[in-house]
Amino acid sequence: MTDIVAGSGQPLSPFDRIKQTRLDGTEFWFARDLQGLMAYGTWERFSNPLQRAIQSASNTGMAVTSHFRRSAKPPRTGGKPREDYELSREAAYLVAMNGDPNKPEVAAAQAYFAARTVQAETVERRVARLPSWAIALHELVDQQATLEIEQQRQADQLREVAARVDSIEGAHDWYSALAYARLHGFTTERTYLQRVGVHAGRILRQDGEQPGKTQHPAFGTVNTYPAWVLERAFAETPIARGGAE
After folding, report:
1. How many of the other CB atoms lie within 10 Å of CB of 71?
2. SS in 3 state form for the chain?
């Protein structure tokens, strides 16, 4: 997986890519976006760690409605708006800590939000000791960094839109192996993608689900899989020696 917290010149972490920034500069993560990166196939299953996190926040005196803001947005394919939450960094960390410890994706989320928490606390302590002019300069630099991350996120979203228009996926965040490969810059060699598809189907069935189906103008009916399944399938399917890079 990509570096836990991206430093200067490093690629963004998947958790940085799904981070949202409000007009006032505050950051949050949509729960449904976090669901995919933590490898929960359905919202119902993800609701378990989410609700445990909300209960933990309430027990420790956190302002639950501020850290877990209820939200609703329509799926990208249309339809009725779906329940969601805007999670603060602290809330997202609690969700990760209440996730399935057997999932490596949950461990990655825990590591990311733990690192972000330490990072934020260290910066706050250092800033508190600075003179006023330095604090103003720090805020300016922070705004610039936030802008750069937002621009990177928007660029990623444009790539995603292009892959969706090319369009081989069906339901929200379900892709064909070809669409996912194009979206992430992987090889699109046909035999390799077939092996990825077979492995993705195996992973999905082990999780109690079946591949989706959608129509492609050139290839006819193709299988689609959740993003988290394809991320794992591509990682675990080696490119055959002599194959396309």
Report:
1. 16
2. CCCCCCCCCCCCCHHHHCEEECCCCCEEEEHHHHHHHCCCCCHHHHHHHHHHHHHHHHHCCCCHHHHEEEEEECCCCCCCCEEEEEECHHHHHHHHHCCCCCCHHHHHHHHHHHHHHHHHHHHHHHHHCCCHHHHHHHHHHHHHHHHHHHHHHHHHHHHHHHHHHHCCCCCCCEECHHHHHHHHCCCCCHHHHHHHHHHHHHHHHHCCCCCEEEEECCCEEEEEEEHHHHHHHHHHCCCCCCCCC
> What are 155-184's pLDDT values in tens digits?
766 666 555 545 444 446 788 888 888 888
pLDDT, tens only, 122-151: 655 665 665 675 656 656 666 666 677 667
If phi over 0 gives left and psi between -120 and 50 gives alpha, with beta otherwise, what is residue 84?
beta
Q: How far apart are CA 27 and CA 87, in angstroms?
A: 9
Residues 88 and 67: their CA atoms lie apart, in Å, by 5
Q: What's this model's pTM, rounded to 2 decimal places?
A: 0.50
CB-based burial, 4-33: b 16+ in 10 Å, e otherwise: bbbeeeeebbbbbbbbeeeeeeebbbbbbb
One-letter amino acid for residue 182 of the chain = R
Please tell me the distance from the alpha carbon of residue 47 to that of residue 6, in angstroms, as a whole number.
28
